[in-house]
Amino acid sequence: MNRKVVEAAGKRLSLSNLKKDLYPSYGFTKAQVLDYYRKIADFILPHLKDRALTLKRYPDGTEKDYFFEKRCPVHRPAWVKTAEVHHKEVRLTACLVNDLETLIWVENLASLELHVPLARAGSPKTPDSIVFDLDPGDKADILDCSKVAMILRDLLSQMKLASYLKTSGKKGLHVYVPLNRKEATFEETKKFSKAVAEVLQRNYPELVTAKMTKEERTKRVFINWSQNDPSKTMICVYSLRAGEKPVVSFPLEWEELEMLAKKGDPKKFRILHSEAVSRLEKKGDLFRELLTKKQKLPLGSSDTLR
Amino acid sequence: MALQEIWNGTISFSLVAIPVKLVRAVEAGRVSFRKLHSKDYSPLARKMYCPKEETIVPADEIVRGYEIAPDKYIVITDKELESVSPERSRTIEIIEFIDIKDVDPVYYDHPYYLVPSKGGEKAYRLLVEVLDRTHKAGLAKFVLREREYLVAVKSTDGALALITLHYSGEILPDEDLVPKEEKAESEEKSRMKKIIKKMTADFHPDKYADERRKKITKLLEKKAKKQGTVEAPEIEEEVEEGVVDLVAVLEESMRKVKEHK
What we know:
Chain A has 306 residues and is α+β, with helices and mostly antiparallel strands.
């Protein structure tokens, strides 16, 4: 059996099916997945910390069935930290990935993708950031998303808001605005992101839609503002995505986006596991400020938005 | 039309494993209505009301109680309930095959279709064909929406159907329903047989339709054409003031962005 018992921070973990190929058409085994997450653990852990994890498990690899798990599996080791959270009126126990051993345990469950909410479990009503999930519709691509992302950056910076960008690891881009003040509620951030999406739609009707319907999205980029919701999760920065290849949801500097947009090759936006590791070693966590930068939602205080 | 997937996993027995998705097989035909406030057509919400305190009770003050005698309850927490809830099934593990004709329809609870997932098409077709030819159905235990069901997997019209079955404990006894026997005379018997034979037809369910539903739909169409619809008031109107300001700020910023280009 390809089973192995390892020790991390004095905790014993039994790893299983290490030779199983989880990305069969590319060739990337569970051992390699575990190795990836071990190498980038220091960078991803601050972004997972204290957030109710949604596992997206691919027990038989990315070409077979997957399932979401919001509940922390009951067979978890005693040292896995959990939090009681509410998901749409239902109370459930969720995993908190606060340390390396939990990260390894979660990956041993073949949860290739790690999805987390915008708020921490201890303060579920106030998100730490606003997200603009840029999702290209049919006949649109990540280059169209880049255009929207840059307009969005300019618009936000007009309002004195810094924004940070990452690839979704699939077809889209995610623009984040850190808040970190435990002040604005989801209700307020959603209202704000919706208003922003609608203003962009009004000004760039050929390029942007704020509506979910499929027809509206054709040839356009859908700004999914509804992700600013306590029940929603986003793919965590540095998480692998389940696809043909082990692509990572990875931060891009705005200058790099401009360059990539000029080059005009959607494939160049794809950052594979190995490149993710070497970039992190070179430049560190480009999303660091997402966790620390304090910014105020414009007109978001209770006196104007209520 | 792609039906919404309710569950996905595999059917398995012996060495067979077929990846499948579970989809709905029926859709309730009922026309449903929202309850509205007659004076302004606001949709109404259900709230939990405490008659003793004459107040609406918030969700975090509500617990579950199992009534054992009038006004006597055992309180069960979400956690306790969760601890006895079965884990979600990854597979439909067929325990045995039975003759589908042996299953009285009284046991049928709710039908679903199973459709093959990628890579399962061939094995799926094979199972459909063999079940069809042998009139057999596979029995399995299966967890759906936190409940464990006994299910029958059978073939239907070239596809697999999954039917959740009632447990035998749920079937009410029919013993006392039927009057004690009084031998029927053979003459009466043959007369009834004749009548039934005369009225026998092939089963064409499309001959029948829910007449009330048809009438309601027609009524709705007529009213929509004649009187149009009524609209619920915007609830958020009051709060929108801030958003109006926000939109103005955004539009102004947008204008500046465009100028800089």
